[in-house]
Fold:
Amino acid sequence: MASSGLQICGFLLSLVGVSATIAATFMVEWGKDSQAKHSVYEGLWMSCSGTSERSTCENYKYLLKLPIEVQATRAVMLVSLFFSAMALIVSTVGMKCTRFMEAMPQSKGNATAVGGMLFIISGVLTLIITSWYVSRIVEIHNTAHRLQSREFGHAVFISWAGGFFTALGGVILSLRRCWGSKGSAQSISTNQLLSTTNLKSNYV
Structure:
């Protein structure tokens, strides 16, 4: 039961992280330029401009004309979500609380470990690309010397949180497989020891 509970805990943590990553990917508040009362919000898919009372949004029409940091971040975030989708499927099959592959406990445990590794890859990709995006924006802002006030939007922090929780849940799922293997090995060794002791006692 403890092992199953930790599996569920790790899966739910990753699920929260994936949900946050999805939200961050499609949010428009990755960056914010402010000048007086006018603000411009920049996302990975669109930009919005206006005041606190009224704003207009426009989708990006030409992918190749976008800044390299937007192109790269958008691509890696989509790859991260792909790994997360695969991890959700594989982990669901391998978890003890599901009825999939009940006749093959060894394969079921391996599926959980693979799902955990996929979650870790997804979370690390999200953390790396978000940090790289932030460093690029800081570098561009420092060299541009613009009058606008440059800020990071909520999407950056949500993306960081999403990557962290996704990877953390994956670590828990993967470690449970290692702990489970150690427990099985110890149980087998104990059984073998008891069998040997019984044989010796019968012989005497």
Notes: Confidence is low (pLDDT under 50) at residues 179-194, 196-204. The longest helix spans residues 154-203. The helical segments are 2-26, 68-94, 105-144, 154-203. The first strand starts at residue 31 and ends at 35.
